[in-house]
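User: We ran a pulldown and think these components assemble together. Before we commit to crystallization trials, I'd like a predicted model of the whole complex to look at. Sequences follow.
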Amino acid sequence: MGADIGGGGGGSGQGPLSPPGSVLVLGVGNILLADEGVGVRAVEAFRCRYVVPAAVEILDGGTAGMGLIDLIAGRKHLIIVDAVNAGGAPGSIVRLAGADIVPFLRQRLSPHQLGLLDVLAYLQLMETAPESVTIIGITPDDMSLSLDLSPPLQAALAGIADRIADELTGLGVPLVRAGAA
Amino acid sequence: MRITVDPITRIEGHLRVDCEVDGGKVVDSWSSGQMWRGIEVILQGRDPRDAWVFTQRICGVCTTVHAIVSVRAVENALGLEVPLNAQYIRNMIIAAHGVHDHIVHFYQLSALDWVDIVSALQADPKAAANLAQSLSNWPMNSVQEFTRVQEKLKGFVASGQLGVFGSGYWGHPAMKLPPEVNLLGVVHYLQALDYQRRANQIVGILGSKTPHIQNLAVGGVSNPINPESQSTLTLERLYKIKALIDQLGDFVNQVYAVDVAAVGALYAEWTKYGSGVLNYLSVPDMPLDTKGTQFALPGGYIKNGDLAGMKAITSYQDQYFEKGVKESSKHSWYQSTSGALHPYKGETKPEYTGFQDTGKYSWVKAPTFYDDRAQVGPLANVLAMYALGHEPTKRHLTRVIEIASKVAGAPIPLAALHSTIGRHAARAVRCAVLVETLDQQWNLLMQNIAKGDFDTYNRPRFPRGEIQGFGYHEAPRGVLSHWTVIRDGKIANYQAVVPSTWNAGPRDEKDALGPYEASLLGNPVADPQKPLEVLRTIHSFDPCLACAIHMHDPVNREIVRVKAV
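Assistant: Here's a predicted model for the assembly, 746 residues in total across the polymer chains.
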């Protein structure tokens, strides 16, 4: 494994993650619509809570579609953090990956809604898609016009940041909490 | 018979279109925005210098354009001039964004309405490459490239992973292209993915960050210019941009414009459908001076298709534009008691009442220009630029029409532009003009820097009391305007009149149909369960309802609901 990712032995079976930005943690959503923007707020919280190693890039993707192609192309792993309508109490976290994501992609990948999942399909056509894509989804509460998250989502941010950290650890990128010298 | 297509957009937003079909033709239609956009409300009471940061979050497709128009509106209210370097840098950003948007619209968002992917599998790659070479000198029209793409497509189909191609209307009776032309379309579809990235890279370099640019400021841009320093806009970065501009020029002129002309010629009957509203509104753009009185690209208002009688809009202070815009809520889900309102007086008080054919049926308001509906978008802009004698527009339009006439084997008149296909042709022409403008603005910036002018910013000063202003931009989907009232340095009112509001709006104060609705009258529909022809006409406008909610929904559901009753 790459020495610049904290010397983690990982043992995940993945290839080395030494090139900077091998993993993209992409927060998406509309921050003008309260919890719709939880993905963006969660990656901000992650950035404050952890020391982000060079192998990882954090990005606020907003609601962009095609504009993200260039930013995702060539990454080894992609972790998307987004509001997901998966039921459960507001703030609950669902993880979609691997086989879970395939039927999900098929469902939504259509010429009729050009979103993030279409972007992934275009990357496949261009043969520059990430090896793995994981979605960390958070159940929203309030989607009305506001720049602030609802109280349950605000309370869930630290936990979501920790889930992002777990995900990265699983990819062979161990993390250190900010301020924990 | 009534058909409902919901949602109809391939991109952000929720547009529903209802059609009454009789004898295989649309006889009445309703365009309905299915989502409330009240983003303006969030800006009230804020610092006007920050408004652009929020407005660029309105939509995921049009981040840049809402940012630019917002700073223009505040500058207009202040009477603030913008340094030349800042104008050139902004112009390059919006031109590059426009080029990106137009390429993506034709290939990724609408080509599959006309190009049958499955039929492309049957093509003879050699014949297809020969055909492509007869139309253009594009080096990537080789037999090897066509064979490689066809093999790749076969692989996708064999693995069942049609992905983005999964839900097209393959084999529909309205699909008329020969297999070789379909393959040509697929080859260029894939190449377009690569070239649209290059346009976005220009936005990223100048805007300091994508997807949300960071370099704007009320009064200019925050790009420090220093040809020597690594951390600023250096010559190295400027030459990287120049290389990208040249590559885009090759693709747009040798591929995009040619494909639109050829596909349009092979679907010539579609020049008879889709005209609708013949009042066309566009605005000048790419300011060449600090005040916004001279522009690289002209614009104006054409009433009832009369190019000779058109009226130009000439400056950022233009009263003819400022006074002409109103919005009606008579058929929209808002409280509406006082008739159509000017945007400075605009109200956004939602009142949902359900879908009523003769009453309220949309979240979109109905804008008017001097009380008439107007179509906006590249067609409106290209007609205006043509009528005002803009040389590059004339040159590119003449070329596209010549190629189309050659493929059709008959001369195609200028009037064919008032149609579904005409909107695609005009968009390709505008894209070619934008690449040229991008190059021109690059040269102007370099010349100005060479003179030793590194200015990029004039500091705004907000007076006590109330001021108001508007800003406009000829965005990829047409006229975008922001209107703001500022009281004691804080935003008191803010309204965005977006291009898709002009085109997708419902009936107005006088019950006149909006451009989408009017364009569908007489449109053919062979199979009400598969209303491909309706999508063709609506997609030709590049529909996008700028509201940008996009939540993943893991619950299985159909992508597009077509209901025929």
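The first strand of chain B starts at residue 2 and ends at 6. That may be worth checking against your pulldown data before setting up trials.

User: Thanks, that helps.
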